[in-house]
Amino acid sequence: MPGSHSHRQLGIVSVALITYFNVSGGPWGSEPLLAACGPLVGILAVGIFPWVWCLPLALTFAELFTAFPTDGSFCKWVGVAFGRPMGFQVGFWSWTSGVIDNAIYPCLIVDTLLALTTLEDKDDAAHDNNGVAWNIFALRAVFALLFMLPTLSSIKVVGQTLLVLGVLIFLPFTVLVAYAVPLIKPANWVVIRKDRDWGRLLSSLYWN
């Protein structure tokens, strides 16, 4: 029907970015993947893992979202399967973990900016006798508030904000990749470590 999708606020790119920032937040983590068992095993693992784990999981979520076309996602699914109290528990603890996890990123941003400054004594600038300096704490709070503001407007603004953040995050890595391409040595890709750490490899795959 014409106009049946006119209520949609997000496009494919915005949904993809929301998903990306929700589960990743940046192209980090490749170092332990390659270091755990060597580049060859790491590259093969990155190529195989999405098909044996991520794709079935995505199809499961797609099936559940189709079966329950309502707000609430996994809270609704768990509530239907195990009762509303368990659905509430899932939602509450998911929210709690999100609050704790999201509190990390303003700290990382401020600490990174502090590390990039030309201050002679960064430790003294970041800490006082009682712990973290108040100016650093305030700066972290400012970043947290800035990231919160789009969510107070609309989901469309959130998508647009994440588009800008996505460009800002990927641009430096694009420059690094362009710089590194002439330095590539394909012979290193087939190296396998003798002391392979499978646990580290699997944990890095799941984390990424």
UniProtKB/TrEMBL annotation:
Any one GO molecular-function label of the UniProt entry: polyamine transmembrane transporter activity
Membrane topology listed for this record: Multi-pass membrane protein
Gene3D superfamilies in UniProt: Amino acid/polyamine transporter I
Compartments reported by the entry: Cell membrane
Keyword terms: Cell membrane, Membrane, Transmembrane, Transmembrane helix, Transport
Pfam families membership: AA_permease_2
Predominant localisation class: membrane
GO cellular component: plasma membrane
InterPro entries the UniProt entry points to: AA/rel_permease1, RMV1-like
Residue intervals passing through the bilayer: 41-62, 131-150, 162-184
Similarity section: Belongs to the amino acid-polyamine-organocation (APC) superfamily. Polyamine:cation symporter (PHS) (TC 2.A.3.12) family.
Name by which UniProt lists this protein: Amino acid permease/ SLC12A domain-containing protein
Species, as recorded: Peronospora destructor
Organism lineage: Eukaryota, Sar, Stramenopiles, Oomycota, Peronosporomycetes
